Amino acid sequence: MAGGKAERKGRPAPQRFQGIQFQKSKGQHILKNPLIVQSIVQKAGLKSTDIVLEIGPGTGNMTMKLLEVAKKVIAVELDPRMVLELQRRVQNTPYVNHLQLIQGDILKTELPYFDVCVANIPYQISSPITFKLLSHRPLFRCAVIMYQKEFAQRLVAQPGDPLFCRLSVNTQLLARVFHLLKVGKNNFRPPPKVDSSVVRIEPRTPLPPINFKEWDGLIRLCFNRKNKTLGSIFRQKPVVALLEKNYKTFQALQDASGSKVQEVGADPSLLGDLAEDDSMEVEGDADAMEIMEEDGSGDPSSFKEKALGVLKQGGYEDKRSSKLTQDDFLRMLALFNKAGIHFT
Ligand SMILES: C[S@@+](CC[C@H](N)C(=O)[O-])C[C@H]1O[C@@H](n2cnc3c(N)ncnc32)[C@H](O)[C@@H]1O
C-alpha cells in the first residue's frame, strides 16, 4: 500500500505504488477512488468505436476503465517508471492490443487523431494543454479533464462572475465548457494541496472567422484592468501610443501595397498563443498608468479621440470587461478593425 509505515518524526512517509515514489514536480497525484474514476469515464459518453487520448495515465487506474469501453486508448506519459508500470498492468489482459503508450511530454508531442480526450492532468500544464487540444485538427468531439478547482472555475466563469477573466473568454470563444464534478483532495494519493473539478470541453465548430492574434490583443488589453471602464483603459497613454503605432504600421503597409491589406483569417495554428495566462503587456504598471491617463480634453482629431469614438459608437465607453459577453467583444473588435485600429 502507498505510504507504507505511518509518519516518521512528523514527516509524511513517501507515497509509493509498486515501489514507485510519486513526484510532486510531475503532478503525480493518483486518483485512488474508483467511484470517481468510473464517474469521469461515464461522463465522457464514450462509444465502442472511439479513440481516446489520455494525458498522463500514471499507474493506469483510469486507463484500464477507458479500455473497457473504447476501441483504442492512446496514452502519453512523461515518466518512464509509470510507462513500465502501465505496460506491466495491461499485459496478459484482453486490452493489451488496444493501448498505445507514448513516453514523452504531451506539450512536445504531436497529437494523434482522437475522438475524445479523458485526463487527470498535472495541473502545472493546464493552460497550454487546453489550448494545444483546442488548436488540434481535426477537432475532437469532447474532452473531459480534471483541473485544479480554481482553474476550472475560471474556465466556465460567465460575465459578471468574480472569476471571469481572459482565460474564460478565450476558452469560450473556442469551446462550450461545462462544470461536471467537484473532487476533494482526499480522493488522490498523495492528496494535493488543492481541490479539483472535472470539466467537459466541446470545441465550437465552425469558429468565428476572426484573426485570433487581433482577438487576443484586444482581450489582453481589456482584461489588464477588467474592472475599469473601457473608456479609462483606452485613455491610458501607453495604450494610446501602442495602438497609434499599430495604426500607422497598418496604414503604411496599405499604402505600400496600394490596396487593402489582407486580414488573416481564422487560422487554428494561431490559437496556441491564447494559452499564456498573463494580461496585456503594455509597458508600465497599472498605478503608473492611472497617473498617465489623458484628461480627454485634447485635439479631437487625435488618435485617442479616434479610438474613443469607436468605443462610443458601440456603446462601450462606460462598460467594464468583467461584464461583457463574447458577442460584445466580437462586435467591438469588428468596429475597431473597421476603423483601421489593430491590436497586433
Ligand atoms: C495527476 S497524475 C494522474 C495519473 C492518473 N491519470 C490518475 O488519474 O491516477 C498526472 C500524470 O501525468 C504525468 N505527467 C506529468 N507531466 C506530464 C507531461 N508533460 N506529459 C505527459 N505526462 C505528464 C505524471 O507523470 C502523472 O503520471
In short:
This protein is of the alpha/beta class and 344 residues long. Helices cover 37% and strands 15% of the residues. The chain is elongated, with a radius of gyration of 24 Å.
Explain what the structure shows.
Belongs to the class I-like SAM-binding methyltransferase superfamily. rRNA adenine N(6)-methyltransferase family. Keywords: Methyltransferase, RNA-binding, rRNA processing, S-adenosyl-L-methionine, Transferase. With 344 residues, the chain is α/β, with parallel strands linked by helices. The protein is built from twelve helices and eleven strands. It has a seven-stranded mixed β-sheet. Strands 1-2 form a two-stranded antiparallel ribbon. A two-stranded antiparallel ribbon has the order 3-10. Helix 1 packs across helix 2 and helix 11 crosses helix 12. The longest helix is centred in the C-terminal third of the chain and has 21 residues. The radius of gyration is 24 Å and the shape is elongated. The N terminus is likely disordered. Bound molecules: S-adenosylmethionine (SAM). The site of S-adenosylmethionine has 23 residues, from strand 3, helix 2 and strand 5.
Which structural traits does this protein have?
344 residues; two-stranded antiparallel sheet; 11 strands; 37% helix; binds S-adenosylmethionine
Specify the overall morphology.
elongated
Unreliably modeled segments: 1-8, 278-298
Portion in helices: 25-40%
- Main beta sheet strand tally, sense and closure: 7 strands, mixed
Mean pLDDT: 87
InterPro entries: KsgA/Erm, rRNA_Ade_Mease_Trfase_CS, rRNA_Ade_methylase_Trfase_N, rRNA_adenine_dimethylase, SAM-dependent_MTases_sf
Enzyme class: transferase
Domain Ribosomal RNA adenine methylase transferase N-terminal: 36-205
EC number: 2.1.1.-
